[in-house]
Write a structure and sequence with these properties.
Blueprint: E1 4-5, H1 7-14, H2 18-26, E2 32-35, E3 38-45, H3 46-61, E4 82-85, E5 88-91, E6 94-95, H4 96-99, H5 105-113, H6 137-150, H7 159-176, H8 186-193, H9 198-211, H10 218-228, H11 233-244, H12 252-266, H13 268-278, H14 295-301, H15 308-321, H16 327-338, H17 344-365
Antiparallel strand pairs: 1-3, 2-3, 4-5, 5-6
Helix pairs in contact: 5-17, 6-7, 6-11, 7-17, 8-9, 9-16, 9-17, 10-11, 10-17, 11-17, 12-13, 12-16, 14-16
Length: 389
Amino acid sequence: MASWISMDEACRLLGVRPQTVYAYVSRGKLEVMPDPADTRRSLYRAEDVAGLAKRKQAGRKHETLAANTLFGSEPSIPTALCAFFRGRPYYRGQDAVSLARSAELEDVAQLLWAAEQPVDFSSPVTSAPTALAKPGRIAAFTALAGLAAVGHSTRGRLTRVLHNEAQGLVGQLANAFGARQGRKPLHLRFAQGWKQSTQVADLLRTAMVLLVDHELTSSAFVARIAASTGASLPACLLAGLTTLSGPLHGDASGRVQALFGEVERMGEDHVVAHYLSTGLPLAGFGHHLYPDGDPRAAALLALFEPPEVIARFIEKVETLTGLQPNIDVALAALVAHYRLPADAAFGLFATARGVGLMAHSLEQLGVGQVIRPRGRYVGAMPEAQNTHP
């Protein structure tokens, strides 16, 4: 039978504060149950706490192996694109949150791609297959798959030519998610396509700049692997985009939207009580890179008022768990408040991060070496060969 311990004991064994314990619970790393003796308190599975403590200790011993491992610590790939300083993301040394106050997606693309000419997303790739009538991820994936099937390798092509192709691909992606075609900046084209005001357009601009890159994410790593093999730019973008579409990555806002749906149907008190009493993680709260809160979410949420019931829900979760909303909550709240299309959150994320995926792909081309990690075999050993004559 499983044994359970108090919050104080869990904090002591892990050497952390209660907020960190809540974060472990929200990420599904620590099981929790109501205390039968006092339902206002929670108990934590002792086995989970012991396992976390053991992994923390092992992590300290193996920090120097980070460059050679994929699990337990991060693969180390040199990049000049994005890094974290003082709890904030920076694009080529520039504060991403500060850039988001006025920069357009086109400006950030020029910065990250180190492009000599201004970036223009108004001319999508001309050989793209006809997009489906209904905008959304089906149209986006279909268009990119068609381009990847006939795309040219990146090898032996000038950088300015690759920049032109990259901007066409991002433009194609935006069109697939409903941006109106034309020569205006992408945030204005999205607002027109979704029938929104220029005020909302500025919020879309802010959101996309905040979402452009986040250092070596899973999707960036996959895009770089594809680029290292000489794959075409549409293939690199498609590889990254398919990885981005996972609910634990770029489509996390979809999980938050589902959570908001529960809140709107049943009320914030019921939903919060249910999740905390069952130990289910609350999607969109807490971020392992931002223990003091996601500055991207704070910047975006400061610019509009979420629907009242969602605002109460966010406040209640913060009060009871100590966890701050991350960018996925801010993005889902933006979609809910302005009644944007159902796939708008992923569309904004995919288009903005498409700029970052192209930046990682282009940067990887300068390395000239295929990324090929080695597997550590843990399966059954082959049977010994019969040596008898």
